[in-house]
Structure formats: structure tokens, C-alpha cells
Design goal:
This protein has 228 residues and is an alpha/beta fold. It has a domain at 1-80 and 201-228: Rossmann fold (3-Layer(aba) Sandwich). It contains seven helices and eleven strands. The protein has helices spanning 41-48, 74-78, 96-107, 111-124, 140-152, 170-185, 197-200, and strands at residues 2-10, 16-25, 30-34, 56-61, 64-65, 81-84, 158-162, 189-193, 205-211, 214-216, 220-221.
Length: 228
């Protein structure tokens, strides 16, 4: 489903964010991307979503080499991706409902079908009763749930989340991770970038550890903090 082969990403000035990265992620797998601030976690997710392109190597998503995609093909790739950004990227001049509706409008969904999908997504994250509210009126945890609703409204097969619990207290973080777990249970492929060891210990999932742009030896993390 997702395959990196000898991927390198350099930014202007020569900074290497990722160095010779190779790994494979199977359909329906849940994987944590770990590492210190600046390790390359966000860059890795951005490459999968074609927000950025590698300087060398191949990034294959659902059989498509993202590095060689033409600009016109990128929206079609992203129809199968859900993106939960670290900085939310919410539109504060639009309601909760309209924030979630936006991806469907961009993709040209029928209005009636869109309304159903938006309300289903809001119900999934527990925000259906807040659909008319402005995002500024939501708590931090509710804003994060709104981001998740927007990410899953088009029913993607792959969900990418960048530090989804980074600014939340333990209760909200557990709530958010419970939502992700429910998606994984119905077959969605999940990649979650995080530095929160407490979050990772709750799940039986593989971890890809980055350090200064290089992939480190990893272990399978078991629920309740056990390791294989």
C-alpha cells in the first residue's frame, strides 16, 4: 500500500530531512512514526500526500509513484488520503459543518450525499450537536476531533496524522486515540507521527523511528508497554 525505496529529501541550503529511507506498510496496518522534533516525521507524511516531492528514491502509494505524478493527478491520489495536520488548518470564518464539507465540495460530490457524509463524520467524532458552531468556540480536543472529521469525510483508505495529541491533556489524547483505533478496526491504514511514548504503549503497532532523518532499528510495540 505504501512503499519508500531509498528516499532522500533535501531542502534549500542543503539540509537533509530524510536520508536513504526504505520501508513498506501493508494495507490496514497501523504504524507510528517516532522521533525527536526535526527528525523528519512531518516530511515523511508530506511525501506520502504529495505535499512535497523527494529529491531521489521512490514513494509508492496505492501503486502510484508519487514522485513522478503530474500535478493534475495529485487530487485523485488525495481522494484516498485523510490528513490530520499538526496546526489544524481550520477555517475560522466557517462553521463546523462547513469545515468538514470543504473536501467534498472540492471533489464535486452531490450536495445531498455530501450532507449525509458530513453528518456521519461529525457523529463519528462526537461533534454532531456542534455542527453550527464556529471552530473558535471549540476546545482544543474538539478542534482536533473536527480535524479528524474533515480528514475522514471522504472515507479514505489511508489516514495520516501529524502529532494529533501533541497539545492535548491525557484525557483528550486518549479520546483522540480511541477514534483512530476505531478506524483501524474497520481496515483503514493509519500512520501517526508522534513523540508521545504513552500514546504508543496503548497499541500493538509497529514503530518507525527516525533520528536526524535516518531510519533507526525498530521493534513491535505491544499494548500495555510490552515489547517483542
Amino acid at each position: 500500500m505504501i512503499s519508500f525505496s531509498q528516499v532522500c529529501k533535501r531542502y534549500p541550503g542543503g539540509y537533509e530531512a530524510l536520508k536513504n529511507i526504505s520501508f513498506d506498510i501493508a494495507e490496514g496496518e497501523m504504524v507510528f512514526i517516532t522521533g525527536h522534533s526535526g527528525a523528519g516525521k512531518s516530511t515523511l507524511l508530506n511525501l506520502i500526500a504529495a505535499i512535497e516531492r523527494p529529491n531521489s528514491g521512490s514513494v509508492v502509494v496505492n501503486g502510484q509513484n508519487v514522485a513522478s505524478l503530474k500535478a493534475g493527478a495529485i487530487p485523485y491520489l488525495r481522494r484516498n488520503l485523510g490528513l490530520v495536520f499538526q496546526d489544524h488548518k481550520l477555517l475560522f470564518d466557517r462553521s463546523v459543518f462547513d469545515n468538514v464539507m470543504l473536501p467534498l465540495q472540492i471533489c464535486g460530490f452531490d450536495h445531498r450525499e455530501s450532507d449525509k457524509r458530513v453528518r456521519a463524520a461529525l457523529d463519528k467524532v462526537g461533534l454532531l450537536q456542534r455542527e453550527k458552531a464556529n471552530p473558535i468556540a471549540l476546545s482544543g480536543g474538539e478542534q482536533q476531533r473536527l480535524c479528524i472529521a474533515r480528514a475522514i469525510v471522504n472515507r479514505p483508505s489511508i489516514l495520516l496524522a501529524d502529532e494529533p495529541t501533541g497539545n492535548l491533556d491525557m484525557a483528550y489524547a486518549a479520546d483522540i486515540m480511541g477514534i483512530f483505533k476505531s478506524f483501524h478496526q474497520v481496515g483503514v491504514t493509519l500512520l501517526i507521527a508522534t513523540h508521545d511514548e504513552g500514546v504508543m504503549r496503548q497499541f500493538e503497532a509497529r514503530a518507525l523511528a527516525l533520528k536526524h532523518g535516518e531510519l533507526q532499528p525498530t521493534s513491535v510495540r505491544q499494548a500495555h508497554g510490552k515489547h517483542e
